[in-house]
Write a structure and sequence with these properties.
Two copies of one chain form a homodimer. Chain A has helices at about 5-30, 35-55, 60-70, 80-95, 100-120, 125-145, 150-160, 165-190, 205-220, 255-275, 290-305, 310-320, 325, 330-335, 355-370, 380-390, 420-435, 440-445, 450-460, 470-480, 485-500, and strands spanning about 230, 235-240, 245-250. By secondary structure, the first copy, chain A, is an all-alpha fold. Among the domains of chain A are: about 5-150, no CATH class; about 195-345 and about 435-465, no CATH class. In chain A, strands 1-3-2 form a three-stranded mixed β-sheet, with helices on both faces. The radius of gyration of chain A is 23 Å and the shape is globular. The mean pLDDT of chain A is about 95.
Chain lengths: ~500, ~500
């Protein structure tokens, strides 16, 4: 057996343990009777520990070094070279942080999560302050352990968006801020121009589900290699390239929740389903970063799913399912309703115009915290000030409308938020490239044919799995780095029209 | 940490891996999109291998010896003594068979299963003959490796029914044969006395499901610690004392399939749910043998579920759900229909009167094969002869009505069948003891109160988990060994009445 095969074979156990753990997690969200939780936590802890121990072992290091020697002369584009690169990246991430710090992080975030839950409930940031201070301190230590050239945030960001630099994100957000904040202000002056009443009626859940399944099938999510279930928080998870599952949640009084949630998760899932099948069971399977992943979900959810062309295909079906609610609602009114902009206080409910302002705010706070330019004690005020600057609103509370709304920080996820915006920017950048390469795509979609778009995504993005780091993939696909311009062009065209600016 | 705690802690990983594997298996039967199968097989193989390797390691042996020294002075009834006994039993089973033989058995049965599937389809025993011969040869080797005092079959039986001896099973079956065969012949002369047409109508699946769930809740299956799903082959599986799941299958034209299937699996599941919670995550959790397990499922399915008292409680509800089918069917006619006896050719469809004849036949053939008294080439003829002797019928084919009907032999499960009959015998023996100890049980059931029976089962059987080997448990519960007499008394009283003998 050659060295790369030896490495692959050894790591296959780890992939299988991780996929088994993913199934246990899926089951916990979807099926598990609630009293099964304590045993499930033990089982998950065992699987994760066994996978982690085996991965950080000296044997992995030895096999990896041997494999690196083997691929040294290979073209960088060779799958084996890519595999070794990816394993090296993950191995460094996993081994550079001392076990004591990993354990301290786990302990602290477990406690912090409980504290956050109560503080959010009480809408009282002060209750969460000490826990957040401990987490920021540990994240600083983690960044030092992981290492970085320029900014400590680089080290944290790299876990979710390999090789992306903080300075690049800042440049993107600076550009975005300059263009978006005034544009948003223009829209805010005309909020009355769009009425979202059509999607705020009572829509029977069973019919919503049937419609969502129909849309998912039509856009290309493969139900022979996946399924949709219900869970409190929608997510996508995979146990194989051939078993990629999504979940959704239904709100009877709010149609977009399940519908766009399903399309969003479907976008994530089609990315995983489109991976080169020869990567099955190796570290090359999966998405290459959270940002690229989000580009796929947002492309389908927003660029496709909230377009006139898309509803030209599906609106008749939706009306037929919900005649009492929609027969008197013209398609154009429905299209405007699903694209209504608001002075959103809550990130997860924000429209595509204001969404990135929420992310920019979080990114700025995280960086300032990590670099000691902002004290934890002042986070709430800083949050509220920025909400006022960017969105013209002041949160009425610290809880679900304010600084405590997101779970991320309490779970130790610092450096994660920017990937949502990177995904939004890339969704349009990839879309423009797809239409440039295959000009029939918009018309195909108007005819209800989504195959030409999906094929382009498969060929250019999905099949590569983790083979290329995100910047390299973006360069290969679009001929340049990630940019704001396509996204802003898209927003301006779409919303100038909708709001009659 | 004392030695027993060290052993427990070390073995907890194995328990968690086994439970994770069980969940992967459950998901495969219940949810998995079919293209996920190859990856699932790899994941299951990894989990099983890791659990097996860790269990048969020298470390287990060392910790076990230390723990044995620790418990040497303890009362045999102490939980720690029991734990060490159970681990020793499993450790011997797992380590005595050489790895090469384990692998050869796995390879051979994987192939044999495919051959069996085709042979069964073609209803041609000859196609399966060579595979069966190889399996019998390997099972003989396995028996030698496991070791036995008297009969090679003892070693195989011990895997499913610890410490049970072949000679004891023979004695039970000899007694059974003498009493049952003439009794069955009497019933066969009066088969026309019962009409099963009432249960052979069209019963909507959704209503069947609703009714089954109602019955399960009522008899005491805890849905906060379990759930029922659908699968091709019904089964019970557990991932914790607090997460014990069952499956069922629905046949629209045959009411008993799902209904009695659900009660049967519910009986298995209540056994697991009733285990002492302090055994969670240890080798003491679970059922002590397949025979004891089957006693619980059969007690609820047959002794309770096919009784007049049970239907006095539920028949009104069933009629209300299926008025078109049942409003003109008196309860007595329904009761007779669900207890109809037939000249059954197929074990899994057999009524409770003829069921054990099917098992006796298989047990006799397995023993004769293992001891070289029967050639594999002659198995089909021997099967058909015994079917004629015991049931007065000759199978019309080798396939699903004949010698190839069961999956067991192709999977290497030799020594497994008798546990079904042991369960049937014990179901009545335990029932008689329960009624002796708590005389109100029959009246409680007539009033729809199943708690007094379930409490007795919990206290006397369920809570002990694997603490006592089956013979010891039976002795503790009933004051004596397993017997045929209670079962035959029950059959004779019930069917003399139904068939007017």
């Amino acid at each position: 057996m050659d060295n790369v095969t030896q490495l692959k074979t050894y790591l296959a156990d780890i992939v299988h343990l991780q996929h088994a753990a993913a199934l246990l997690g899926w089951d916990q969200q979807v099926n598990m009777p609630h009293k099964g939780a304590p045993a499930r936590a033990e089982q998950l802890a065992t699987l994760s520990r066994l996978a982690h121990e085996q991965f950080i072992s000296e044997k992995t290091g030895r096999l990896l070094e041997n494999a690196e020697a083997d691929v040294a002369d290979l073209d960088a584009d060779h799958d084996n070279a890519a595999l070794v690169r990816v394993v090296r990246h993950d191995y460094n991430l996993a081994t550079r942080v001392p076990t004591a710090l990993v354990e301290e992080l786990a302990r602290t975030t477990t406690l912090a999560h409980e504290i956050w839950t109560k503080a959010r409930e009480a809408a009282d940031f002060n209750q969460f302050e000490d826990a957040l201070a401990r987490i920021i301190d540990l994240k600083r230590q983690q960044a030092e352990a992981l290492g970085y050239e320029d900014r400590p945030y680089d080290a944290l960001l790299d876990q979710y968006e390999p090789q992306m630099k903080t300075a690049d994100v800042e440049r993107l957000f600076d550009e975005l801020r300059a263009e978006l904040v005034p544009f948003v202000a223009q829209i805010f002056e005309r909020l009355d121009a769009v009425d979202d009443a059509p999607i705020r009626q009572r829509f029977e859940v069973d019919k919503q589900e049937a419609f969502g399944l129909k849309v998912l099938k039509r856009i290309g999510y493969d139900f022979e290699r996946g399924r949709q279930d219900r869970s409190v928080h929608p997510f996508t998870t995979e146990f194989s390239i051939n078993d990629v599952r999504i979940t959704t949640r239904f709100e009877e009084d709010w149609l977009p929740s399940a519908l766009f949630g399903s399309i969003h998760e479907g976008g994530h899932a089609m990315y995983e389903q489109g991976c080169n099948p020869t990567y099955e069971g190796t570290f090359l399977a999966g998405g290459t970063s959270l940002g690229i992943h989000e580009s796929q979900s947002r492309l389908w959810e927003n660029v496709v799913g909230r377009s006139r062309a898309f509803w030209g295909v599906f609106y008749g079906d939706l009306q037929a399912l919900f005649p009492a609610q929609l027969q008197d609602v013209p398609m154009e009114a429905f299209y405007r309703a699903i694209n209504a902009v608001s002075r959103s206080l809550i990130r997860v409910e924000a429209d595509e115009v204001t969404y990135n302002l929420h992310i920019m705010l979080r990114f700025e706070l995280e960086n300032a915290l990590l670099e000691g330019k902002l004290a934890v004690h002042d986070v709430r005020d800083a949050w509220n000030d920025k909400m006022h600057d960017y969105l013209g609103v002041t949160p009425p509370d610290d809880g679900k409308h304010g600084v405590l709304q997101d779970v991320h920080w309490s779970s130790g996820l610092v450096g994660y938020f920017p990937t949502y915006s990177l995904g939004n920017f890339l969704s349009v950048q990839f879309w423009e490239q797809a239409v440039h390469d295959v000009p029939s795509i918009p018309e195909d979609i108007q005819r209800g044919e989504f195959g030409s778009l999906l094929s382009w995504l498969r060929e250019n993005i999905h099949r590569h799995g983790r083979k290329y780091f995100p910047a390299e993939l973006t360069e290969r696909v679009t001929g340049g780095p990630i940019q704001i311009a396509p996204f802003m062009r898209y927003l301006k065209a779409k919303y100038t029209d909708i709001y009659g600016l």
